[in-house]
Amino acid sequence: MASRNNKSLPEEVIFYYSPVYLQHITLPHHPEQPIRLTAIVEHLTKNGLWEMVTHRPVDETRFGNVAVSKYILNVHPKQHIDYIKRKAGEAHRVGKTIIPFSDGGDTNVSGKTFDVGRKAVAAALDATDVVCKGEVYRAFCAIRPPGHHCERNRPMGFCVFNNVAIAARYAQREYGIERVAIVDWDVHHGNGTQAIFYDDPSVLYISLHQYPHYPGTGSAGERGLGDAEGTTINYPLPAGTNEKTYEDIFVGKIVPAIKEFKPGLIMISAGFDAHKDDPLGDMLLTEDSFSLFTRILSDAASSVCDGKIVSLLEGGYNLEGLAKSAAAHIQALGGMESIVQTET
Ligand SMILES: [Zn+2]
Choosing from 24, 80, 149, 209, which is the catalytic residue? Predict the structure, then answer.
């Protein structure tokens, strides 16, 4: 475990980032670019948060590329892993960096995507480790590619492995955590995560998202299957939804649902593309909104699972909105609201 700095947050937050994540390359026009993470890192550095979180280098985790594949297999079939590996190999061989999948969701694969994708999963697994062991109670992974659109056997919507699903399964199988709650506030519905757990009553999947919007799923009527009916909860929201509406849903619906479900761990699919400046969404949230939602979920986590939260970056495509929102989220995870300036 990396040592803590002199300046720290009231609640220790483990922060995962690696320059390796910049090696997944997408086409020039593509919104999901390496600079997204650079923007977050620069902003955290500028406002002092970089020194206040505890850094956990991904290369120092026990999850090398081979070890990670074992846990990916808990969610994705070998065929899917081989497909991503093959496509990345093709991209490498033809000397062109990028192969776009024709998935309707603009997913690109470059020569390093397979390795980078496994490193993203490695951070999610290690974060789950440290939180489930009780070493810390909060972790945030600044990773890419994102994950929540990826289905069991289909890369989709910029996503090649479903990071949050793999980590949720890992928490269950390695730590005996019976129930995991995943809250997904990305502006897009997490169709992949929903599909993976749709018939599984042990994972509560809650999503708030713009609707109708990409990927088209996430109506209120999608509630889970069989024994799992009621453990998928969708809040489809119209374009132009503001913070107050979100807050009412968080306080009035999501927190009670989490308290009733009694998860041993809360995971957040933390996309920041519902920010008002985001080019891929039409919502009216600000960075303060993400601070608010984080505090609401932190309170819920304190009452049901000793405060345990693992948060993974999903979308967010306006660089300033993304960086400020991620910073606000991390501050709130650490129990700090406004001590650090959020000016860029
Ligand atoms: Zn999104």
Answer: 149
